[in-house]
Amino acid sequence: MHTYHNPLDLVRERSPERPVALVRPDAVSVAARWFQAEFKGDVFYAVKANPSPWVIRELADAGVRSFDVASLNEVELVGEHAPGSRMAFMHPVKSRVAISAAYFDHGVRTFSFDTHEELAKILDATGQAKDLNLIVRMGVQAEGAAYSLSGKFGVESHNAPALLLAARRSTQDLMGVSFHVGSQCMRPTAYQAAMAQASRALVRAGVLADVVDVGGGFPSIYPGMVPPDMSEYLAAIDRGFADMMVHETTELWCEPGRALVAEASSLLVKVELKKGDALYLNDGSYGSLFDAAHMKWPFPVKLFRKNGEVVEEGLKPFRFYGPTCDSVDHMPGPFYLPESVDEGDYIEIGMLGAYGVAMSTRFNGFGETDIAQVSDAPMASMYGLAKRSIATPRPEAEERKIVRFSRPKGAAGKKRRRR
Ligand SMILES: *Cc1c(COP(=O)(O)O)cnc(C)c1O
């Protein structure tokens, strides 16, 4: 992978025709070391946030030896780039073929589930193995998260005790409980509340967990979404764990995805056309900008003029369109850029290391992305690599962004309220 001092050098030297994922491996390493030093338990990287081989290798080099995987492809990916790692298959719905291959061919021993049917399937597909770590995924309230992850998965509280008991009886190894408070969780206390909910289910089941897995959800920094310090999340988890009925050797696990990789990649795109306040780019919602389109996240941006000139004054709000012919390929922003931005210029879109390149498709013949390493700092950082905030140029813009943060509730929200 070619390394440039910064994106401007890359623009000057290469004038890239395709979008370029700008990667900053140090940012992965710093985040991984921080989590391992501060979290009082085992850190599993949730591979889906960014499955790039360089990420897996960088994490392994930084000492991460545990991975949360959700498909056989992810199992194989980790096996190839971080051989010898421990993997936890945390998708609550798996195919029998995937379970068998993970168990027999890749040494995976940890599986999660949220139904009796899936537990039976896991036992069956592993030949009634006795050395399984069985993790019950619980549904929890996702207050303060940008994305709810409890609508689709997680056993409801009143059904949890029976499933915990069944899990306890099905293994001589570890039995545990897991949940996901929702991605980009803005409230540290959400973890404590979820742990209390898990604890009540365990008490009702009359079993002690060997593993308490607090899942992912740890936030990164985006304009209008500057979370509390990461140490507050870990402190809330410490309090939650202290309040749980557990035994002396109960293990604490977490599964951060976003928090380990968000800072570590940005995207360099080219402006193909300017039409008023609309900039037509060579990447969009079918490429690495899914969240910018579908969640309307206003990612931070920087302009690099084609002639190498650096302009920062005269900021004006722009919206982006991606290269496909689909009209959902629209990123409303607002993205604040110098008014003089024009065709042929380049824009760096920051904080796209999580759920960016990972979401890219080849729809309409686009989506091919080059990759280059840069050694400058990310646009913002939870770990001291850069500022802990991202400037939001106008107050009214900040307000709009904060409003957008509360995601429209879908079926998940309704289901929770009914209970
Ligand atoms: C997606 C996912 C994660 C990672 O979530 P982040 O919000 O990126 O930290 C962790 N665990 C499970 C089970 C997931 O599905």
Automatic annotation (TrEMBL):
<feature type="domain" description="Orn/DAP/Arg decarboxylase 2 N-terminal">
    <location>
        <begin position="34"/>
        <end position="262"/>
    </location>
</feature>
<keyword id="KW-0456">Lyase</keyword>
<feature type="region of interest" description="Disordered">
    <location>
        <begin position="392"/>
        <end position="419"/>
    </location>
</feature>
<dbReference type="InterPro" id="IPR002433">
    <property type="entry name" value="Orn_de-COase"/>
</dbReference>
<dbReference type="InterPro" id="IPR029066">
    <property type="entry name" value="PLP-binding_barrel"/>
</dbReference>
<protein>
    <recommendedName>
        <fullName>ornithine decarboxylase</fullName>
        <ecNumber>4.1.1.17</ecNumber>
    </recommendedName>
</protein>
<comment type="similarity">
    <text>Belongs to the Orn/Lys/Arg decarboxylase class-II family.</text>
</comment>
<dbReference type="Pfam" id="PF02784">
    <property type="entry name" value="Orn_Arg_deC_N"/>
</dbReference>
<comment type="pathway">
    <text>Amine and polyamine biosynthesis; putrescine biosynthesis via L-ornithine pathway; putrescine from L-ornithine: step 1/1.</text>
</comment>
<dbReference type="InterPro" id="IPR000183">
    <property type="entry name" value="Orn/DAP/Arg_de-COase"/>
</dbReference>
<feature type="compositionally biased region" description="Basic residues">
    <location>
        <begin position="403"/>
        <end position="419"/>
    </location>
</feature>
<dbReference type="InterPro" id="IPR009006">
    <property type="entry name" value="Ala_racemase/Decarboxylase_C"/>
</dbReference>
<dbReference type="InterPro" id="IPR022653">
    <property type="entry name" value="De-COase2_pyr-phos_BS"/>
</dbReference>
<dbReference type="InterPro" id="IPR022644">
    <property type="entry name" value="De-COase2_N"/>
</dbReference>
<keyword id="KW-0663">Pyridoxal phosphate</keyword>
<dbReference type="GO" id="GO:0004586">
    <property type="term" value="F:ornithine decarboxylase activity"/>
</dbReference>
